[in-house]
Amino acid sequence: MDSGDGWMLHAGDAYFFHGEVDRANLRSTPGLRLFQFLADTERGKRLRNQHRLLELARESGDEITIFSAHDPVELRRHESATPPWQPHQSAFSTRFPALLPGPVYRLGRLVTRNPRS
User: Fold this and answer.
1) pLDDT tens per residue, range 67-85
2) Strand pairing category for 109-112 and 104-106
3) Based on the number of CB atoms within 10 Å of its own CB, is 81 exposed (0-12), middle (13-18) or buried (19 or more)?
4) Are residues 24 and 77 in the same domain?
5) How far is CA 90 from CA 45, 85, 93, 95, 104, in A?
6) Structurally, how many domains does the chain consist of?
7) What range does the domain containing 101 cover?
């Protein structure tokens, strides 16, 4: 996603702790390493994917911000910098507004509301 200040890449479940892709201070926690070892189904693929993300982080510098779905530190870092989500007015949503969801919440705040709900 182009944030206007650079690119943001959502890495999903590829890692759980920001230190796993930190270009300057690569690290993890002992508990997390144990959890990942016990939960791994394809350890080699997971480690290769993390390595690819780390290389991307190193090569891109500040041009690309990588974040995961699980790290609360990254969430706090980006939640205040992220503009509120705005619904896209597609042809579908204007023709069928009753099919839109009710109120939409993002990080606990009301962002948009279906005018018919």
Assistant:
1) 888 888 888 887 765 555 4
2) antiparallel
3) exposed
4) yes
5) 38, 15, 5, 9, 17
6) 2
7) 84-117
